[in-house]
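look at this fold:
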Amino acid sequence: MSHTALIPSHRKPRQSASKTALRAGVAGGVLSTIAVAGAAGPAQAEPVTQTIEMPTITAGLSTTVAASAEATQQVALDLETQANQDAAAATAAKAAKKAKAEAVRKAEAKKKAEAAAKAEAKAKAEAAERASRASRSTERTTLSAPSGSSSSSGSSVSTASAPAPSSASGSAASVVSFVQMQVGDAYVSGGTGPNSWDCSGLVQAAFRTVGVDLPRVSQSQSTAGTQVGLGNLQPGDILYWGGAGSAYHVGVYVGGGQFVGAQNSSTGVVQKSLDYDPPSGAVRVL
């Protein structure tokens, strides 16, 4: 046996003549049938009555349209909100500008009012100072006149606020004269003259005119000399209010039951009777 007898051949087997003839006859019959149908003409063709259904797209389209309408409405709302915000911002800015202008106007008006008040206060102070100086000048003229002197009309000149000429002499008279000349000056805490004083500043300045250097404060001045009783006072004695060594106020006895002192900011420097403000004690330096 050949060594290739069992290996199948890959070549197509040849068709038999009978199969070939059969296929040719079938093909010819089909072609003949087509030819006969074509010769019969269109009158013999059956009408096409089949209906074709188109796919329904209404559901998807409505969803799309609804989404588009919602988006359009949202855009409109956003635009309206933005417009409202812009209008509110413009209104707020206008109100703020108006408020600022009003505040500036009020500040200017307040500044002008304060300036006017200061000017008025200054004018009043100057007028009061002029009146005070005129009053002091009148009082000094009165104090310098002899007791019991008469005017051309025969009326006596009042000397009620002045001590008798013989009641003070020497250094005491100088101290008394000095403090009496300051009557009408202003009281200022810490003041040492020449036109404003506190109580101890006036007493210190008065004794300095006669070469006596007193301590600055009333507590020390109340123990600067010899303690004397209030029933044994002499012009030039230092009066004090409060305890000796802890006094809160001092003045100078000028005779005739009167004293001169820088009392307070309301009265200034005054000459008053001891009954007006009775002192606690007195010291004699001269």
